[in-house]
Specification:
There is one protein chain. This protein is 40% helix and 13% strand. Strand 7, helix 8 and strand 8 form a beta-alpha-beta unit. It is an alpha/beta fold and 481 residues long. It contains 15 helices and eleven strands. The protein binds glutamine.
């Protein structure tokens, strides 16, 4: 029989429901797999093996006795370290939250548990989700790309991506503020979805930039993404930015038929810096969409070039405000030597935050300061609107938009990129966050032994369209190989 860990979440779920496998067997196989592989890969920062096995046995008992079970019954799932869960380490990979354990479950965690999923542990990330490499984590381990251990997995949800890519779980949850789900998905050869702003509750997600952050799933297939989206989507009284929009059954849209679908290709995304290997995969993917009967239409999103600078004003501004709550008093790390309250704040924060987080706090407070708020923060808000309008106009003409995910494949761990070079890695993923629209990264091919993804963007709450197109694409390329 095929190895358990190679199956999809959907297949696992079916086998557990049909009693071909027990959840206990699946969870045991997954923990064995983690033991064998995680020293090398470094996906996980904490595991909950005992609790997971007990929960798996309970799911098995329910199934044996014919009780109703949820739609992810018995399926092992991993969570990014910036989502809180009750009584468990929830540290956002930061020293400032050293020793902190959640005192409630994030809404997504609650929903997964209600669907009888088995949460297996927390995954590594860049500190407070700021980064593209998973190298700014406070945890000692390095998270490595399973395709080439000398390369980065991407970030900030690097551990979430590698946990699926290295077959250590079937679905994982990450967060995406400017690309942190889609970029590591592309680097690691898995599917990753950033949903529409407001589709999924952020209650219990540690805030980085609240007007951009979204939680989303990683999985092996688009179908598994749809399966998990069905569970974690929907309005939540605890998150006023979540929206009362009906959650369809996303699986219903995976028909494989995209004849006549209008796919826009923005000319601004095909820049000079695009790696030729990536370009080749992207061009071939477009041909596949054509062969499926989609209509390819060139479009223009004229303000694209302002997206990265706009993001790197707005995201740090929001971060500097969100991170003000970490004062050394209420949570985590507190300095041991302070003579007065000011010193306590200053020392706790200086010791507790890493360089990249400090850099963002400094940029953020600067662009919000009295003399500069009009020139930077307010200006960036206006440009954000122009970027949003570009998409609105494009979606009058097309159903979805097709782009590369990143300018190049995963880079080497020892390749020292400057902060600004790293910021420019995000140029293709940031616009969707600024516009609040959904985006998915889907494996499309390889270059020099490394996976390359393509990105599909949809209208707000148009997850069904990108899932439909992504699934059709995935089926088409599977047939070819
Ligand atoms: N790489 C981007 C940044 O450093 C995006 C991070 C994210 O989406 N959380 O801000």
């Amino acid at each position: 029989m095929e190895k358990i860990y190679n199956l999809t979440a959907f297949e696992i779920r079916e086998k557990i429901l049909n009693k071909e496998l027990t959840s206990e067997e699946v969870v045991t196989a997954i923990f064995n797999r983690i033991e064998e592989t995680d020293k090398e890969i470094g996906s996980f920062v904490s595991l909950r093996k005992e609790k997971a096995l007990l929960e798996a046995k309970e799911v098995d008992r329910k199934i044996r006795s014919g009780e109703k079970v949820g739609s992810l019954a018995g399926v092992p799932i991993a969570i990014k370290d910036n989502m809180v869960s009750i009584g468990e380490p929830s540290q956002s990979a930061s020293k400032i939250l050293e020793g902190y354990e959640g005192i409630y479950d994030a809404t997504v965690v609650k929903k997964l548990k209600a669907a009888d999923a088995i949460i297996i542990g927390k995954t590594n990330m860049d500190e407070f989700a700021m980064g593209s490499t998973t190298t700014t984590s406070v945890y000692k381990q390095t998270t490595r790309n399973p395709w080439d251990l000398e390369r980065v997995p991407g970030g900030s949800s690097g551990g979430a991506a590698t946990s699926v890519a290295a077959r250590q779980c079937f679905i994982s949850l990450g967060s995406d503020t400017g690309g942190s789900i889609r970029q590591p998905a592309s680097f690691c050869g898995v599917v990753g979805l950033k949903p529409t702003y407001g589709r999924i509750s952020r209650y219990g997600l540690m805030a980085f930039a609240s007007s951009l952050d979204q939680i989303g799933p990683f999985a092996k297939t688009v179908k598994d993404i749809a399966l998990s989206l069905n569970v974690i989507s929907g309005a939540d009284d605890y998150d006023s930015t979540s929206e009362e929009v009906k959650v369809p059954n996303y699986l219903d849209y995976l028909t494989g038929d995209i004849k006549g679908m209008k796919i826009g290709v923005p000319k601004e995304y095909f820049i000079e810096g695009l790696n030729p290997g990536v370009k080749k995969v992207v061009d071939e993917a477009l041909e596949t969409f054509k062969s499926l009967g989609a209509e390819i239409i060139e479009i223009s999103l004229p303000h694209t070039k302002y997206a990265a600078p706009t993001y790197y004003v707005l995201a740090p501004a929001e971060a500097s405000s969100n991170l003000a709550r970490f004062d050394g008093i209420r949570y985590g790390h507190r300095t041991i030597d302070a003579n007065n309250i000011d010193e306590l704040y200053i020392k706790s924060r200086s010791e507790g935050f890493g360089d990249e987080v400090k850099r963002r706090i400094m940029i953020g407070t600067y662009v919000l300061s009295a003399g500069f708020v009009d020139a930077y923060f307010k200006k960036a808000q206006k440009v954000r609107n122009l970027i949003k309008n570009d998409f609105n106009e494009a979606f009058d003409k097309v159903d979805i938009i097709f782009t590369p995910v990143t300018p190049g494949p995963a880079f080497r761990l020892d390749e020292k990129k400057s902060p600004v070079e790293l910021y420019l890695e995000d140029i293709f993923t940031i616009p969707a966050n600024l516009a609040g629209i959904p985006g998915i990264s889907i494996p499309a091919g390889m270059t020099e032994g490394l996976p390359v993804g393509i990105q599909l963007l949809g209208r707000a709450f148009g997850e069904k369209d990108i899932l439909k197109a992504g699934d059709a694409f995935e089926k088409a390329i599977k047939e070819r190989v």
